[in-house]
Design goal:
This protein is α/β, with parallel strands linked by helices. The protein has 15 helices and 18 strands. The chain folds into two domains: about 60 residues; about 400 residues, Alkaline Phosphatase, subunit A. The structure holds zinc ion.
Amino acid sequence: MKPGFSAVRSSSAILVAARGFGGLSLGLRTPRAPRYHGRVREADTGEGCEGWRALRLLACAWLTSVGCTPAASAPEPPPVLVFAVDGFDWEVIEPLMAAGRMPTLERLAARGVSGELKTMRPSSSPRLWTTLATGRLPEEHGILDFTKDDPAGGKELFVVSSDRKVKAYWDILSERGVSSTTLGWWVTYPVDPVDGVMIAQTNTLGAGMQKGSLVAGRTGQVWPPDDEEWVLATLERQDAALEGLMLELMGERREGLTPKQTRRWKQCGWALRADSTYVAVLQELLARGRRTRVTALYFGGTDVIGHRFWAAHDPAAFGLDEASPEVSAFGHVLSAYYEYVDRAMGEVLALFPAETSVLVVSDHGMTGLELEQLGDPPDFDKHTGNHHGKLVHGAFIAAGHGIRRAQAGEPRGPGNYLGHITDFCPTLLALVDVPLGGRMAGKPLETVLDAAFLAAHPVGRVETYDDPAWVAARRSDVVDQSEERREQLENLGYLGDDED
Ligand SMILES: [Zn+2]
């Protein structure tokens, strides 16, 4: 069996499915109708490009056999794959890349462009990731921080997806008949009914751990709802495998840690739990032949671990001895996590065709606090890695269809400012030929997109995608913010006490 692709666009119709030679299921739909099929046949994950081309040929042969016009067999456009990596910083990437320890990123950078997108302050992740998803400034999209005031006067509440006042790329793409999969993106709970798949990052509550995950037993985290059962089963599987994965990735937990150090170690575990679950869900979706035109996969551990272990990662800057307990226990942790993300990106990329447009994007970077900021004596249980104090831009790497290849001698990597985080959504839309909204703050990045691609795909614009009726219809009823739930989550160990 060969891998499937979920959608082939043509001028007048969209061909959905083609999931394997064993049991080809094909269906024709009109372009604006939802094209997503909740249940499809199982298919092997296959070997990327070759399988993709083979299926394309097969689909063309089928179209010919049922008498479609030649125009209908035009090759389908390559997919777009976004790796959304929180707090991804060149200060960590560069030395690892130079040592050959981030080979996936190195290969991407070598065949595309690499640099940074400028970010903005305040730099709380929900605010910035919503800017990335919408191309709009926070004052317009309405997600200003992790929490919002409770209208009933109670404790602060976490922001939820229905607090967003403008459409995100997944809403716009759905409206334009372009399917998408979004896994773990900030402020996506409860999930939106997209053309494709959405798996929420569900925030836990109160003043607790701010970075979310999938939460067992809660509805509203999976779109389409038909997938809920197996997605939540994936979570269970990841939970069962977590200890082994931690051991493999981070090594044995060191002896003699203080309770606070032990908690930081455990926080690495829940970051890995969230990230590895989204990766596993994507692998399962692809194994089921559920590829969409756009796929976005979020990793949060780079931020979570960067905050907690920066001093151990960069001991000289903190006057720490290599033999100190902080460094001997945690010195390897941040690098190990970056390597994990690189390996996961590599495994996912192997399931996509070679011509895929790949965007690696971050909301902000990360840097060390000054030693004086840790108090006297310095408290290394504080967040020694930080992005809130000053503007710290995040890494951006792109390669593949529609993307420029940096020329010899051209700037690369840290300090190579390719644009601003508001440009991300317009760039993504340009890659899939969807017009920009007139009120978007950014523009498609000419530093990133290939000139020939832009010439062949002129960027369209609509006045706005804003729609008061759409805003009014957004639901928030499935959001459970009860104290009881909070207690339960605390007991399960999902709540910590640090801000990310
Ligand atoms: Zn962030």
